[in-house]
Amino acid sequence: MPPRTLYKKLVDSHTVAVLDEQHVLLYADLHIMNEYTSPQAFSSLRAARRGVLRPRQQLAVVSHIIPTHPVSVAQRVILDPASALQASNLKRNCREFGIKLFDTNHEQQGIEHIIAPEHGWIRPGMVVLCGDSHTTTYGALGALGFGVGTSEVEHILATQTLVYRLAQDLRIRVDGVLPVGTSVKDLILLIIARIGAQGARGYAVEFAGSTIAALSAEARMTLCNMAVEAGARAALIRPDQTTYDYIREKAQDLGEQDFAQALGDWRQLYSDEGAVFAVEHVFAAQEVAPFVTWGTSPDQAIAVNALIPDPLLAGDAHAAAATAQALQYMGLSAGSAIAGLPINRVFIGSCTNGRIEDLRIAAAIVKGQQVAPAVRAMVVPGSGAVRRQAEQEGLAAIFIAAGFEWRQPGCSMCLAMNDDVLAPGERCASTTNRNFEGRQGRGGRTHLMSPAMAAAAALSGCISDVRTLEKQHV
Ligand SMILES: CC(C)[C@H](C(=O)O)[C@@H](O)C(=O)O
Ligand code: SF4
To answer: Does the C-beta of 37 come closer than 6 Å to ligand 1?
Structure first.
């Protein structure tokens, strides 16, 4: 057999039938649903008088619409009628078809992409599908994860398979040590800025190199989560000891013997020597600086000490128009510094940066300091488990003492489908993944950055270089 990439191995091991040169029928080990993209699928299923083939390989989470007010989980109520209906529909569907659900008042409630790995349900070698684009997150653990559309959700529920168009292979190598004050979030913002928001379109991306190997399992999730913002159809990292240790800790139901047996399979999950990638990009970790987006697309990002780009210097007329439009929406002028720009809001959370390690990083910066008076800052943990752990570790107390709001988990202001929204014109330092126009509320202005940079912005009241801030406090 010719050398294969990790991606090809995963596809091959889940191919039920080859349909044509471009398409296979792909088997899904796990299918995750949210309240937003599943209702129609269930309606169609009922209309066709079909059932759910493998209910135990399904998982449902109410994540996008739940309010995050700091009332107890049991007291959480969805007031918005349309959202309440979505949640009750999901409940009804899950009850009828016997699917495990993390409902609005569940203690472990949170964002689907945080809940699934933290319970040990994502394992190397799996295919995981979900009606949500950030399903690429699971590549961090060596699983092939990607988002599907509503009509595909119906097909998966009925057959546990998907008609899948094959992607091409792209490798991104990163070597070296990330500089002090930077994190994997800065790395992925830099990569997207360089290759563009369409730079990985149509490709399954494998991240490789010493920088990637040194990342924690959670940091790898941040990386694979955001790869979709470069258009990637999947993101993968070869499983290694870091992966095995993470799963050992999280997968409580996996006994010694099963784990040992699984390890044998997981160790085969790598791109063979000589496997061909259609495209390869190489980066050096030393190039990474704290990054911030200035525009309305995740690739419109610069190092915090750089100047906001000038449309006149853009490559072509199309790029010039896009830059000018983004600057206008963001209320920024070309050529000015991004550092020092006053902000109104800070949001720390989301499936990109709402894990315990993210909260630890932010809390270390915030500790003993105060949120700037004009700023409203919130921390929304990614799940009930993250929230509880942060409370046990004393992180919540640090945030609260500094003046942050300590909220209940959910997607929250990542996409403003609940009442956590920006007012028109408000500027937000956000650890999320998308800065599209209106993403956090109509007329709201989003600057994507790392948890460390968001913490620094909260304290100083403006976009600030966390490296300088850290020095001031030493
Ligand atoms: C609501 C859902 C379909 C959407 C996605 O697919 O990613 C959301 O999670 C997002 O982040 O924009
Ligand atoms: S946290 Fe944001 S990116 Fe993640 S699933 Fe929710 S809305 Fe989508």
So the answer is: yes
